[in-house]
Write a structure and sequence with these properties.
The structure holds two protein chains of two kinds. Chain A is of the alpha+beta class. The longest helix of chain A has 46 residues. The two termini of chain A are 16 Å apart. Chain B is α+β, with helices and mostly antiparallel strands. Chain B has a domain of 147 residues. Helix content of chain B is 25%, strand content 37%. Chain B has eight helices and 16 strands. In chain B, β6 and β7 form a beta hairpin. In chain B, 31% of the residues are buried. Classes of the chains: A alpha+beta, B alpha+beta. The interface between A and B is large, with 108 and 114 residues. β24 of chain A pairs antiparallel with β1 of chain B, so a sheet runs across the interface.
């Protein structure tokens, strides 16, 4: 390879850049995920693999390639690390990195001009790639990344609605935040503080004014819909934010304003009267819920219609009763539930209504309305705070329920299935408490898999409870992994934001209040890199053993 | 080519690990948990003794505490946390956090200060706060109407201290209707005005648990302790009075004194949340290192230096 490189002088101009692209992808798509997923074992395998690769490199080229590789990875990391700087200090640091790399490459690595030039160009190019999202490229391209939509430390995340509200074939994203308004306020304040450097003296909590933001695909990016009409901000949409209860019970969300119900000093005073603390908490709960129930006229939950179940209409929970219509027959039953989850397909083609309260209940309506299935807190702890997804994951025309529990719960995610005789079967349970079901992607093509389960799943052996985006399918008491990308996100929903008939994944980045839209691609990047690695090793080994004995 | 076999094995492992990952299920059974409880012959007596010990005992006047209100509504978790030191009957210093934002709070007699990131330390004048009279353990007696319903759970160790565990379970409406205290006054007023909250309170469950220590002292320990607290141990009457006042209880079977401080206190409220399941709310405090000589709080004069 070395000799042919020297003979045909244009080859290095192609081979070094190609090797750069290969190494970058190999590092981010194989090395990092592998080490994260299999921890020490993964690291050990990578070391063994690297030794084999080093062995396979022709002796003459070995030092140059090792130095080149290490410098490239170092530059990639260094350029990422200085990303927190701005202005002059950023460019100065960048210059130091480039000079450093060139010097090491020249004096230690004895590299020729071509690889050094390639290294320097690559160092500049990687600064344009969002390195922290690099593992995503194995399965996705980033379609859109929003700016931070909320500026404050009060609430750690807000939910968003992903739905085709105006029914034009594209899903809108509706969320809540303050960034667009807050920026102008902060700029204004900065001007004022420049004039007089007064620090605030009033420690009392003030209402946090939030705004609904609607985003819509305009062909190239998600564009904010200014002054969204009521057609987009329906009551149903606004309800999603109300029922998320941010800051409960200390804050109350009214007309997109987060109002403190108690000040910090008063709260500390009563909480540190230890005996009085539960009484203070309960008083806040009641005050907060009284606000809420006054606005809903005492209704706990209501749904005019149930998606995919046209037989239901006008379902409502109020004063411990659930009322509504099934096939135009009015029903009324006592309930302790507080939430109408949705319709559920039961065995023998019976339709049910799933309710969540201090137990998980399914009502059936033929021949008579009754409570058919129930699961108590004794059977499933933390059922009261579980998040539920209804979906037929084993494709047998009977729905399953996918349960995920809060992070601090003692319970692990599970899939349960209604059986005949009003019994439940637990068909799958996670071994790890951090495993969370997020959404189901429904594919329009009817061949093979009709849907996949999107989950957040920590690495196999790693000790950190960081959850990565993954996809599975259910297969007889086991889940089969389709893919996993080592990007930690929250609130993943699938939807079609650009109206192309294919599902994108929308998620948000925890702690940054940014929304990320991922577009799946069908290039088997991981397999290509593995194949290429195998090919290079085989070729290298063959060459070494044949010619360098 | 002796590397060939190894190389093929490695590539097979690599391809296997990366492609077909199956996640088999954990044991597929619904849990069945039953709590062991013992009915208590004299719950009122034991609970009152513990409260009195914390109110009156000299060694209960200084203590470290940490605690929180944690609210779980589906995956949303909202917290208000405290950790600090208490010196009765004067006050306390606490690091705190409300909905993600840190603050600090200081009280010494009639001096109150609050620190926030935006304001640094600021004075809070007593008329700005609706403070209760400062007796940190007194309000535990608000649970008294329900003491006769307490059950005892198996003993637990809290930070290596043996404790008796007592628990009271109530419904929300019982709790509110049978409690009479200034904090519930506005709640009672609200309940008179609206019917919307009735079902909600009927369906609310409240569980209060308290972990009471059973610290043992030999006669020698007690005399040493009394001497440290400047009691004239030669005067038997004075010593006896000090022992009674500090609620050391003589156990004639074991020939030792026992002392019953509260080491942990928790209330769990499970309350229906319209449209969002039920909330799991935990109000929790742990008390540790009672009478630790390291506990000290700055004086109000020192605090004044922080005010700009």
């Amino acid at each position: 390879m070395n000799q042919s490189m020297n003979k045909r002088s244009f080859l290095p101009f192609i081979l070094w850049p190609l090797y750069t692209v290969y190494l970058y992808l190999f590092y981010h798509i194989i090395v990092i995920p592998f080490s994260l997923d299999f921890w020490v074992l993964g690291v050990a395998l990578i070391i063994v693999l690297s030794l084999i690769m080093i062995f396979a490199i022709p002796k003459k080229l070995r030092k140059s390639i090792i130095v080149f590789s290490l410098l490239l990875l170092l530059a990639d990391k260094a350029v990422f690390n200085i990303g927190i700087l701005d202005g002059l200090s950023y460019y100065l640091s960048f210059a130091v990195i480039l000079i450093g790399i060139a010097l090491i490459a020249k004096w230690y690595g004895k590299l020729s001009v071509t690889p050094i030039t390639v290294l320097l160009i690559a160092s500049i190019l990687v600064s344009f790639i969002p390195r922290d999202h690099a593992p995503l490229y194995a399965h996705f391209t980033i379609k859109w990344k929003s700016p931070a939509l909320y500026i404050s430390d009060t609430i750690d995340y807000f939910p968003y609605v992903l739905k085709d509200i105006d029914q034009d074939g594209q899903d809108e994203i509706v969320t809540i935040g303050n960034a667009f308004e807050e920026k102008s306020i902060i700029e204004q304040q900065n001007q004022e503080t420049n004039e007089s450097s007064n620090k605030e003296t009033d420690p009392s909590l003030k209402p946090d004014q939030l705004n609904y933001y609607v985003f819509k695909w305009n062909g190239t990016e998600m564009e904010r819909v200014m002054e969204p009409t009521q057609k987009l901000l329906t009551n149903e949409v606004i309800n999603v934010f109300q029922k998320d209860y941010p800051g409960f019970p200390f804050l109350s969300l009214n007309d997109s304003q987060l109002n403190p119900l108690i000040d910090r000093d008063e709260l500390a005073e009563s909480m540190l009267q230890f005996g009085a603390a539960p009484y203070q908490a309960m008083a806040l709960n009641i005050e907060n819920l009284n606000h809420y129930l006054t606005t809903t006229d005492g209704v706990w939950d209501a749904k005019e219609e149930i998606i995919n179940y046209p037989a239901f209409r006008d379902i409502k929970i109020k004063n411990g009763m659930i009322t509504g219509y099934y096939n135009e027959n009015k029903f009324e039953l006592k309930t302790t539930a507080s939430k109408i989850v949705g319709g559920i397909q039961l065995p023998n083609k019976i339709e049910g209504l799933l309710l969540q309260g201090n137990s998980l209940d399914v009502l059936t309506f033929t021949p008579e309305p009754k409570l058919a299935y129930t699961l108590t807190q004794q059977q499933i702890s933390d059922i009261t705070t579980a998040e539920l997804i209804i979906s037929d994951v084993d494709f047998d025309q009977v729905d399953e329920i996918l349960l995920s529990f809060p992070t601090n719960s003692s319970n692990a995610s599970m899939i349960i299935k209604p059986k005949t005789a009003e019994k439940w079967e637990l068909i799958w349970k996670a071994k790890d408490k951090s495993f969370r079901f997020e959404d189901i992607i429904r594919h329009n093509d009817q061949n093979g898999k009709m849907s996949e389960i999107i989950v957040l799943d920590k690495s196999h052996i790693g000790l950190q409870p960081i959850r990565y985006l993954s996809s599975y399918n259910y297969d007889t008491h086991a889940l089969k992994r389709n893919w996993k990308v080592f990007q930690s996100v929250i609130n993943v929903r699938s939807g079609d934001v650009d109206g192309d008939g294919k599902q994108e994944l929308v998620s948000s980045l925890y702690g940054t209040h940014q929304i990320l839209i991922l577009q799946p691609h069908s290039i088997p990047v991981t397999m290509i890199i593995i194949g290429l690695t195998m090919l290079l090793i085989t070729f290298g080994l063959y060459r070494r053993i044949r010619y360098e004995k | 080519m002796k590397n060939k076999g190894f190389f093929i094995a490695l590539s097979l492992v690599l391809v296997f690990l990366l492609s077909s990952c199956s996640y088999p299920s954990d044991a597929r059974v619904f849990n069945q948990q039953e709590q062991t409880t013992y009915p208590l012959s004299n719950p009122e007596e034991v609970l009152k003794l513990a409260i009195e010990t914390n109110q009156q005992s000299e060694i209960a006047q200084k203590v470290w505490f940490s605690g929180w209100i944690a609210n779980n509504i589906q995956k949303r978790r909202t917290t208000n946390m405290y950790s600090g030191v208490l010196i009765s009957p004067h006050g306390y210093y606490t690091d705190a956090r409300l909905v993600g934002i840190p603050y600090r709070y200081y009280k010494w007699d009639d001096y109150y200060y609050i620190w926030t990131g935006k304001t640094d330390w600021q004075r809070v004048t007593p008329d700005q706060i609706e403070h209760l009279s400062f007796q940190p353990f007194d309000h535990l007696i608000w649970w008294e109407p329900f003491f006769n319903r307490a059950v005892q759970l198996p003993n637990e160790k809290i930070l290596s201290k043996d404790t008796f565990v007592y628990q009271i379970k109530l419904s929300g409406d019982e709790w509110i209707n049978q409690s009479n205290n200034p904090i519930f006054e506005p709640v009672h007023a609200m309940l008179k005005e609206t019917e919307y909250l009735d079902t909600l309170l009927e369906q609310t469950d409240v569980t209060m648990t308290v972990w009471i220590g059973n610290d043992e002292y030999t006669e020698e320990d007690i005399t040493n302790l009394a001497e440290k607290k400047n009691i004239n141990i030669e005067n038997k009457e004075e010593l006896k009075q000090w022992i009674t006042e500090n609620r050391f209880i003589w156990n004639s079977d074991k020939q030792i004194y026992t002392h019953h401080l509260i080491y942990q206190y928790q209330a769990k409220i499970q309350l229906p949340i319209p449209g969002a399941g039920y909330m799991d709310q935990e109000i929790y405090f742990r008390f540790y290192k009672y009478d630790d000589p390291g506990i000290s709080i700055q004086t109000p004069e020192e605090m004044e230096k922080y005010i700009k």
